[in-house]
Design a protein that fits this description.
Blueprint: H1 2-8, E1 16-21, E2 26-30, H2 40-52
Length: 70
Amino acid sequence: MDTIADDWDVKPRNGGISEFDSESGSFKFAEGTVGIVIDREKMAADIESALKEKNYRANIQHRPVSSSRR
């Protein structure tokens, strides 16, 4: 479960200067990223429940535990 959630978790990233264009004398900016953390305990419980019920086509959806922007 942790391996899967690790792939889905996204750390927040600040936006900022990504490079300087010497020809135009200006900076280029990169956008920030909103962070997402999966509720691993709830996801595991929902998967276990579906398996116990032999519902192998269960649609398990989760909203992030937190999403923040630095």
